[in-house]
Design brief:
Order of helices and strands: EHEHEEEHEEEH
Bound molecules: 1-O-pyrophosphono-5-O-phosphono-alpha-D-ribofuranose
Number of strands: 8
Radius of gyration: 16 Å
Shape: globular
Helix content: 25-40%
Largest sheet: 6 strands, mixed
Length: 186
């Protein structure tokens, strides 16, 4: 997918994303390599998918992979605030280290909901790794342990991030062209 057809401004390039994956993957490896308990990398669908797959190439660890399908935007450009768990993870988490992988932390409500659930299920530890942090959107107190990069308060798409379920397959992240949002609304 050619990003210039869809974005009016690129905020994170393909090369920057790959460098983030390498840096973060190595940091996670360093921080978790001596853990005795099992590690689960938990991706929050659908946005996590490209980031999680690139990040894991740089995680030199023995780990489980699992997913939860969590949704809050319902096709629009702003979070609805109502977080739905559409599909739960398969593995038990009790006594395991859980690393949650997100494409973006915005209000923080999605992560908070998942964190609370994992705490209730007695995870040994809960760590957040996000490609994008948008601290300007935060409505709950939350600082991810691993942050790829910060973005300003604009609606963004690409590399997992969608508008109306489209444009997740762009290889970079940026601000969509105005006509693209209008076209999708017609
Ligand atoms: C997006 C994104 C995060 C969440 C962040 O997911 O992937 O999970 O919103 O927003 P928050 O910090 O304000 O909760 P979305 O609900 O759009 O589902 P998707 O991953 O399927 O696109």
């Amino acid at each position: 997918m050619k990003s210039e057809n869809y974005l009016k401004e690129v905020l994170v390039t393909k090369e920057e994303i790959q460098a983030i994956c390498e840096r973060m993957g190595k940091e996670i490896t360093r921080d978790f390599k001596d853990k005795e308990e099992r590690i689960i990398v938990l991706g929050l669908l659908k946005g996590c998918q490209p980031f999680m797959s690139d990040l894991l190439k740089f995680c030199d660890l023995t780990l489980e992979i699992d997913y939860m399908d969590v949704s809050s935007y319902e096709g629009g450009t702003e979070s609805t605030g109502e977080i739905k768990i559409l599909s739960d993870m398969k593995s038990p988490v009790k006594g395991k280290h859980v690393i949650i992988v997100e494409d973006i932390v915005d209000s923080g409500r999605t992560i908070k909901k998942v964190q609370d659930l994992l705490e209730f299920r007695e995870a040994k530890s809960i760590t957040i790794a996000t490609l994008i942090d948008k601290p300007s959107g935060r409505t709950v107190e939350l600082v991810p342990e691993y942050i790829g990069t910060e973005v300003p308060p604009a609606f963004i798409i690409g590399y997992g991030l969608d508008y109306d379920e489209l444009y997740r397959n762009l290889d970079c992240i940026g601000i969509p062209k105005d006509e693209l949002i209008k076209e999708s609304n017609e």
